[in-house]
Amino acid sequence: MDLKQRKLNKAEWESIEVPVSVKEQDVLKLITTGYSNVNIRINNNISLFQFLKMEHTEKMEDFLYNKYFGVTVAAIEKRIKTQYPVYKLTKVDANVQIKSADKIRLERNADISGQDIYENVLLKHIDLVVSGKNNCSFTLYKLMKNTISGLNRHIVQLATQVLALYPTDISAVVCNSVETLERNESLLKYGDQVLYDHQKEIFTVCKQPNPKLILYMAPTGTGKTLTPIGLAEKHRIIFVCAARHVGVALAKAAISAGRKVAFAFGCASADDIRLHYAAAKEYTIHRKTGGIGKVDNSVGTEVEIMICDIKSYLPAMFYMKSFNSDESLITYWDEPTITMDYPDHEFHEIISKNWAENLIPNMVLSSATLPKMHELSDVIAGFKEKFSKSVATGTSEVEIYNIVSHDCKKSIPILSKDGFTVLPHFINKDYSALLATVKHCENYLTILRYFDLASVTEFIRHAHKFAPKKSDLLDRHFDSLDDVDMKNVKMYYLALLKTFDAESWPTVYEHFQATRVKQMCDVYVTTKDAHTLTDGPTMFITDEIEKIAKFCIQQAAIPAATMAELMKKIEHNNVLNEKIVERENELEFIKEQAEKAVTNEANTARNKSTKDFRKLNRESNDGETKGDIAKLTKEVNALREMIKPATLNDTFVPNKLHHLKKWSPTTYSANASLARAYQSPFTSDIDDSVVNEIMLLNGIDDTWKILLMMGIGVFINHENIAYTEVMKKLADEQKLYMIIASSDYIYGTNYQFCHCYLSKDLKLTQEKLIQAMGRVGRNNIQQTYTLRFRDDAHIAKLFTSDTDKPEVANMNKLLQTN
C-alpha cells in the first residue's frame, strides 16, 4: 500500500482514463440508479419476446409456444403424467394464425438454438426436476424469482405446477449447500443484480436532511468503495483515502460512470487541486486538437466527487465548501483504521487536525473492521456536540447511524499451518471453550465468510444423523426456501453447536478429529505446492519480504549454471542501466538549459513581432545544443539495444506446462486438465517487454528481477516508483502468479486474489487480521479460495474476543472535535 502523500504521477493519470469492463459498467449503472430506487433489480437475461423484439400479445404468445417450446414441453409432460396421472396437460390452440409481416420477421429469426433464451433455461431445469435430479427444484424455485419480462405464460405455468408436484426438501438443500448454493452455476449466471443491503441502507439514510455520522461496516469486496458513486446522484462527495490506489480505482470507476471528479493528493493548499477534464468548467481550447487545453482548476462548480489523501483533506474540504452548501456535502472516509494499530504514526497528527477542523456535518466512516458503535462513544459524543451547535436553525439534531452488514455469499476456508480446515468444532475440545467461540462468532458475523461451507454441511449432516431431534431446529430456523442462503446455513451451524452439552461434545469432537482430511497447503509455492494455487493470483503477506523472496528462489532449484547465466545478463544490463541513466540525465539537463534560454530570451523580446519570436525559438534549438541532444539521444538508443533479454525456462515458472509436469505429474497431464475447471492451476502471463522494462530500472534488487521472471511481484516501498507502477498494473490485470507484500499493504488492495498466505512473522491485531483476510475473494464469482495461516496463534486470535484493541483507543483519542 502506497501511503506516500504525493501528487498523482503520469501513469496514475493515464490509468483513470481506461474504461472499466462491460460487466463493471453494469454494476456502476445499478449503483447509480439504485440511489433513487434502492429495490431496483436488473437482469440482462432475455425472454423469447425480448429476443425477437415483437409486440407481446396472447395470440402471439401461443404461436411462439407452439413453434419453439411445444415439442419439448410435450415430452416433459408425458413423463410427468406417468408419475402423476391426475396431472392436466397444457392446452394451447395449435392453429393460431398471425399476420404475414410477423411471419416474415420470425423467418429471419427461425433458429434460436444458439441463444440463451430464458424460457429454455427454465425448461432445462424443469426437465432436471422431473428426472429426479437432486435439489434441482430449489434452483428452479430461485430462477422463477428472477426479474425477466415477457416470459411465455405457458412455461411459467408449467414451472409453477412442477414446483407444486415436486416439492423441495429444505433439509436436503441445507445439507447439500455446496452444490445448491456455493457451486450452483445457474444461480450465479441468471440471478438478478441487486444492491447490497448496506448500500440500500446508506442511500436511504443519506436522504435525511439532518447532520449525521454514519458508521458503515461491511465486508471487503461488497461495493463499499463504489457507494460514493451512487451518493453523488444528489450529494457532493469528499472521498478521503490513505491508500492512493484506492482513490485512483474509484476515480476510474467514477469516470466510467460519467461522474465528474477532482483530485487533491499531496496538496499544500487548494492551488494544488486538479480537475479531471470532464469536471472542468473553465478552460482554454487546444489550438491544434480542438480539445481541452489548459484547465482553470480554481473553478470546481462541476465537481461531484473530490478524491483526496489524508494530508489534503482540509484544502479539499474548503475547496468544496466554496462551491456547495455544507448540507449537500458528505465526507466519505475510507478505511479510517489505517495506521490506528500503531502506537504512534506520522498520520496521527494529521488525522487529529483533520477531525478537529472538519466543518462538514455529514460524515461516513467506512471500513470492514470499524469498531462497534459502543466502542466509539467519545467520537460520537464529540461529533454530536460540535454539529448540534453549528446547525443554523437550531432545530435539527445530529443523527448517528450504525450500518452493519455481514454479507456471506462466498466461502473462503481458513487452513491451519498443518493444512487442516479451521472451524469452531475442529479447534475446541472443551465445550465451554466452544460456546465462547460460538458467542464470539455471533458477535462478529464477518467471520462467517471464512467458514468452509463443505465442512459446515458435513457437520450438519452428522448432527442430523446421530441426533435426529436436532433436525427439528432446522424447521424453526428456515421458514421457507427464501431463508436458505449461505449466511443462514452458517448461522444454523452455530445454533446446532449450542445444542450439545459438556458430556456428549468430546465424542463429537473426536469423531471430526479422526475424519479430518489434510489439505495440500505447505509453503513450497514455487515447486510442489504451486498447483494448489488455483483460479487466480496469490498474495503472500509477510514483514520479512527479503527472506520469503530468497526462499522462493531457493526452492525453485534453478540450476547453478542457469542462475549464473541469468546473473551475468542482469549484471551486464545493470552496467548499461547506469550508463543510460547518466546519458539521460545529461540529456535532460541540456534540454532544461535550452528551455530556460528560450524563456529568458522571450522575456526580453516581448516587444518583438511573433515572427521574430519564432525565429529566436528556432535559433535557440540550432547549433551546438541541437547537436548535443541528437548525439546523446543516439547514444541512449544504442545502449538500450545492447540490453540482453533475460528469461527463465518454463520448468522454473510456477504452473507453466513443464513446471506442472515436473512437480505435479499426478494432478496434471498434457492431455487433461484438473478434474474440475474451477480448480485449474494459475500461472503468470508476463510479456517479455515487461521483463525488459524492469531490467532497465535502476535501484531494483536483482532478486526482484529474478522473481518477476517467475511471475512473482513484490509490493514494498521501492525508491524506484516505476517498479511499483509496473507491479500494480500487472496485479490489476491479473498477470502475476503471486505478490509478496508487507502487512501495511493489506488495506485497500483491490486486486483480485484467490489465495493468501499469512506469514508467521506477522504481528497483527484482530482487526488487521480480518483486513488481511479480506484481500481474498473479491471476485464477483465463486472460485476456489483459501487463507493459509503459517501460525495457529493468529487463528486463535481470530476466534477469541480480543480485549487489546489499539484501533479503538486511537480513534477515541485522535477523533476529538475540540
Please provide a written account of the structure:
This protein has 818 residues and is an alpha/beta fold. The chain has five domains: 48-194, no CATH class; 195-404, P-loop containing nucleotide triphosphate hydrolases (Rossmann fold); 429-513; 530-558 and 649-810, 3-Layer(aba) Sandwich (Rossmann fold), CATH 3.40.50.300; 573-641. Helices cover 46% and strands 9% of the residues. The protein contains 34 helices and 18 strands. The strands form four sheets. The protein has an eight-stranded mixed β-sheet with strand order 6-5-9-4-10-11-3-12, sandwiched between helices. Helix 16 links the parallel strand 10 (329-334) and strand 11 (362-367). It is globular and about 100 Å long. Mean pLDDT is 86; it is low at 613-617 and 670-678.
CATH superfamily of the largest domain: P-loop containing nucleotide triphosphate hydrolases
Looking at the structure, the CATH topology of the largest domain is: Rossmann fold
Could you tell me how far the N terminus lies from the C terminus, measured between alpha carbons in angstroms? 31 Å
- Please state the CA-atom Rg, rounded to the nearest Å: 31 Å
Helix content: 40-55%
Secondary structure topology:
Blueprint: H1 10-15, H2 22-34, E1 41-42, H3 48-52, H4 58-83, H5 100-108, H6 118-130, H7 136-143, H8 153-165, H9 170-175, H10 177-182, H11 185-190, E2 193-194, H12 197-205, E3 212-217, H13 227-231, E4 236-241, H14 244-256, E5 261-264, E6 274-275, E7 283-285, E8 292-295, E9 305-308, H15 313-321, E10 329-334, H16 346-357, E11 362-367, H17 377-390, E12 399-404, E13 414-415, H18 424-427, H19 431-443, H20 453-466, H21 471-477, H22 486-497, H23 505-515, E14 538-541, H24 545-555, H25 560-604, H26 610-620, H27 623-641, H28 657-663, H29 688-695, H30 702-709, E15 712-715, H31 721-732, E16 738-741, E17 755-758, H32 766-773, E18 786-789, H33 792-798, H34 806-814
Parallel strand pairs: 3-11, 3-12, 4-9, 4-10, 5-9, 10-11, 13-18, 14-16, 14-17, 15-16, 17-18
Antiparallel strand pairs: 1-2, 5-6, 7-8
